[in-house]
Amino acid sequence: MTPFQLQSVSEAADDIRRLISEQDLAGASARLTPLSVPEVVELVDRLSIEDAAIVYRLLAKARALDVFEALSPGTRGDLVGALRRAEVTSLFAEIDPDDRVWLLDELPASVAPQLLRGLTRQERDLTAGMLGYPHHSVGRRMSPEFVTTHPQLTVRETFARIRAALDSAETVYTLPVTDARRVVGIVSLRDLMSADEEALIVDVMSDPHVAEVTEDAEVVARRTTDYGLLALPVVDGEQRLVGILTIDDAARILKQEESEDAARQGGVEPLRRSYLSTPIRRLVRSRVVWLLVLAVGATLTVQVLDAFEATLAQMTVLALFVPLLIGTGGNTGNQAATTVTRSLALGEIVPRDVRKVLSREIRVGLCLGLLLGTLGFAIAGLVYEWHIGLVVGLTLVAVCTVAASIGGIMPLAARAIKVDPAVFSNPFITTFVDATGLIIYFLIARAVLGI
Fold this sequence. Notes:
20 helices, CBS-domain, 65% helix, MgtE N-terminal fold, 3 domains, 6% strand
């Protein structure tokens, strides 16, 4: 949305809150009428869950379904908790199977059987089948509702299949070509429209990209967007077609994963809903655990300072440079970690590239250290004494090199042991580099100053 649209939605949210507090539901309904579906979604994200449930009930049924499908998974889960059981059962039956699985992943496990019982047998089987795949796998994010064609069918016959499935298929813009349920090709709607109606599909189709149903959803989503695919066929262990991942679902997966990574790199747990609609207690809960962990880790820095207390007592000027050195080290490590974590997410590097990454980060850190160290040497030497400048300069060279190396390899180590690299990112690296940097600083000071 543009800044103007966001401001308009913000004003609408304020109006809706006021009208609901005044119990003027007719006025609230009228205020919602001119808003588009994306604007209603943004508005719901700005309201408390109680007000959001009221707004949802004021929407026409078809529009309410469009809004619900566009909400984030966390908001959906909270909204379901605020609606009546009859409303939830009806809504659950209306949405697509892949959206049902997204929703069930956000709800308590005890709720799933109740909601599944309200589905038809066919819909229940489709949804239950997807729930059987591992968490975070593409099998839980694909759509089992698709249109296929056969290599020996004509373009005319394929169009007949498309028309028959228009109301139920997730997409008709890309069709898997199957033979005995195995994917042998792919054909786009553009290719079909430009071909002769009597042409065989085997002469129109192209080689397919496919994903294994147990592959990580983020990896498959990234591949889908990298290849610019409108839909990617998903196959089981015997290469039989079981679903498709569309480009909009891929974008949704990547948005959620990137939000989680950004949060964890900052040392907080991801929020299930937008910031403005998240209760204060949940914001506190998302941050306090990490703060406690990092506070415990920061005791390393205190212990290092205590161990070198005698050194500081003999040369108190050294204390003045402690914030500069540990801040520079932490920032250098964070830069390296962020770069490597992003490269991991994009598939540019893998854990076995650790030697190459370490080699590059050592050189990058050394270059940064030489630049900053020269500047630190000159400034500290001019303001204080040249031997103090030498200590600061040498420490910056060493700290930048060590920090860049640690920041570069920690995300790779995390991926190797099947842990989210973002978890090992900025906060932990900062804590570790702070303690390491101080040890380096005081050892260099002792060697240069002879204390």
